[in-house]
Design goal:
The complex is a heterodimer of chains A (156) and B (298). Chain A is mainly beta and 156 residues long. Chain A folds into two domains: 82 residues, Aspartate carbamoyltransferase regulatory subunit, N-terminal domain (Alpha-Beta Plaits); 53 residues, Roll (SH3 type barrels). In chain A, 12% of the residues lie in helices and 37% in strands. In chain A, the strands form two sheets. Chain A has a five-stranded antiparallel beta sheet, covered by helices on one side. Chain A has a four-stranded antiparallel beta sheet with strand order 6-7-8-9, with no helix packed on it. In chain A, a hairpin with a 3-residue loop joins strand 7 and strand 8. Chain A is globular and about 50 Å long. Chain B is of the alpha/beta class and 298 residues long. Chain B has two domains: 126 residues, Aspartate/ornithine carbamoyltransferase (Rossmann fold, 3-Layer(aba) Sandwich), CATH 3.40.50.1370; 153 residues, Aspartate/ornithine carbamoyltransferase (Rossmann fold), CATH 3.40.50. Chain B contains ten helices and nine strands. In chain B, the strands form two sheets. Chain B has a five-stranded parallel beta sheet with strand order 7-6-5-8-9. In chain B, strands 2-1-3-4 form a four-stranded parallel beta sheet, with helices on both faces. In chain B, strand 8, helix 9 and strand 9 form a beta-alpha-beta unit. In chain B, helix 1 packs across helix 10 and helix 5 packs across helix 6. The radius of gyration of chain B is 20 Å and the shape is globular. The two termini of chain B are 20 Å apart. The chains are: A mainly beta (156), B alpha/beta (298). At the A-B interface, loops of A face helix 4 of B. The complex binds adenosine-5'-triphosphate, magnesium ion and zinc ion. Adenosine-5'-triphosphate (ATP) binds next to strand 1, strand 3, strand 4 and strand 5 of chain A.
Chain lengths: 156, 298
């Protein structure tokens, strides 16, 4: 009983737990990982779980270990998230997400006149800039537009 | 434009200078002999198109003019990527003008031949910036220039990229505009970070005595919801013979043209007027860009 209350959802034998997601961003994490209804593995998640550092979301993916590249995209919307690899019910590896320096096909350019928002066979491309004052900024490699707010709202 | 280093810009301008006698028709060149240049314009821009045509002709190249692309049946419903792939098979270089931002970058990904950006969307018009720089170099000087940019500094893309390019040479800039059309704050900050000294004012009178170049731009009626407001601004930002009485004798006035009434005709015959020369300098500049892009000059 104690165990269950702690984990909120069932313990998994093998898979990935994304912990310390910024509260309210769990669905966006699924989106950024490209997880939709046709995804095979079992997914469970908790939103607004009380954590030591305030409220957080947690996502658990059963049976699957995602690629580091995919997981690091989470840093765009939740830079403090951690990736826990579970094997045999145990956390065998824990990593912080690392902000990628380049993302393709993940975010929509907020410049409506950008070629990447038109009917062309291309994916959006951004270089990712991190600065102390302004946090994460995306720089569109087509139109040079900068996105520093609302990244989560503009996921593809 | 931000992709170019000072060395690269200087190299283009040096090349333009070498080609100037050809541009004036004083010497002949066969640099583009046997080459086909496609002009793919998705927006009407007669001036830019004509100057590219002249540049190609002066270098002995052939032009594949795709006319008004929207009207042509070949391209109907086709995306730009496919059009570029097709035209790449017909020409040795493509000059692209397109209304969407970033279209030239995308075109370069799909093209089998070099692309010259003849203006894409509302942000970039690099060949205009090169010709502005070339004009300043020929008529004045680039290093540590005292320049005023006047008119619509908010939407005017040519002034934005010119400012960035000039920042490579160090400059003292004065931005002269009505409050509604001020230079965007991000750009001002960014230029200051690059070490430029910047002043902002709404008065040409207070500025004209202190600058070596005055870059005028058009203030468009559409920018003003209130027609009276537009009239006021239009008459305040006007270069007249009167205004020029307090100008530095070496002052040069530039304007990307077409002008409306921001430079009165009496100025045309003064030593200050450089805007028609500027229009000419578009030819050697575009010749240089064509020759360098196609690789006939290394
Ligand atoms: N077998 C499991 N099945 C499902 N979730 C698990 C399993 N083991 C651990 N977790 C979850 O993975 C996350 C990390 O587990 P861990 O035991 O490392 O917690 P922690 O010590 O609090 O780590 P942190 O300091 O990163 O918060 C927690 O959210 C935990 O609930
Ligand atoms: Mg914990
Ligand atoms: Zn863009």
């Amino acid at each position: 009983m104690k165990e269950k209350r702690n984990l909120k959802v069932e313990a998994i034998e093998k898979g990935t737990v994304i912990d310390h997601i910024k509260s309210g961003q769990a669905l966006n994490v699924l989106r950024i990982l490209g997880i939709s209804s046709d995804f095979r593995a079992t997914i469970s998640f908790v939103m607004n779980a009380p954590g030591a550092r305030g409220k957080k979301d947690v996502v658990k993916i059963e049976g699957k270990e995602l690629s580091v590249e995919e997981l690091n995209r989470i840093a765009l919307i939740s830079p403090k998230a951690t990736i826990n690899i579970i094997r045999d019910f145990e956390v065998v590896q824990k990593n912080n997400v690392v902000l990628p320096s380049y993302v393709e096909g993940v975010v929509r350019c907020t410049n409506s006149n950008c070629i990447s928002n038109s009917n062309e066979p291309i994916k959006s491309k951004f270089s990712v800039i991190q600065s102390e004052e302004e946090g994460v900024t995306l720089h569109c490699l087509y139109c040079e537009h900068l996105i520093s707010e609302n990244i989560a709202e503009n996921l593809l | 434009m931000k992709d170019f280093s000072r060395e690269e810009i200087d190299y283009v301008l040096d090349t333009a200078e070498k080609l100037e006698p050809v541009a004036r028709g004083e010497e002949r060149s066969k640099l583009l002999d046997g080459k086909i240049i496609a002009l793919l314009f998705f927006e009407p821009s007669t001036r830019t198109r004509l100057s590219f045509e002249a540049a190609v002709q002066r270098l002995g190249g052939k032009i594949l003019n795709l006319g008004s692309v929207e009207a042509s049946s070949v391209m109907k419903g086709e995306n730009l990527a496919d059009t570029i792939r097709v035209i790449s098979n017909y020409a040795d270089l493509i000059v692209l003008r397109h209304p969407l931002d970033g279209s030239a970058r995308m075109a370069a990904e799909f093209a089998g031949v070099p692309i010259i950006n003849g203006g894409d969307g509302s942000v970039n018009h690099p060949t205009q910036t090169f010709l502005d720089l070339y004009t300043i170099r020929r008529e004045s000087h680039l290093e540590g220039l005292k320049i005023a940019l006047a008119g619509d500094l908010k939407y005017g893309r040519t002034v934005h990229s010119l400012c960035y390019a000039l920042s490579l040479y160090g400059a003292e800039m004065t931005f002269v505009s009505p409050p509604e059309l001020r230079m965007p704050l991000e750009i001002v900050r960014d230029l200051q970070k690059r070490g430029l000294s910047i002043k902002e004012t709404d008065s040409l009178e207070k500025t004209i005595g202190d600058v070596e170049v005055l870059y005028m731009t058009r203030v468009q009626r559409e920018r003003f919801p209130d027609p009276e407001e537009y009239e006021k601004v239009k008459n305040r930002l006007k270069v007249t013979g009167d205004l020029l009485r307090s100008a530095d004798p070496n002052l040069k006035i530039l304007h990307p043209l077409p002008r409306v009434n921001e430079i009165s005709p009496e100025v045309d015959s003064t030593q200050y007027a450089s805007y028609f020369e500027q229009a000419f300098y578009g030819i050697p500049t575009r010749m240089a860009l064509l020759a360098l892009a196609i690789g006939v000059i290394e």
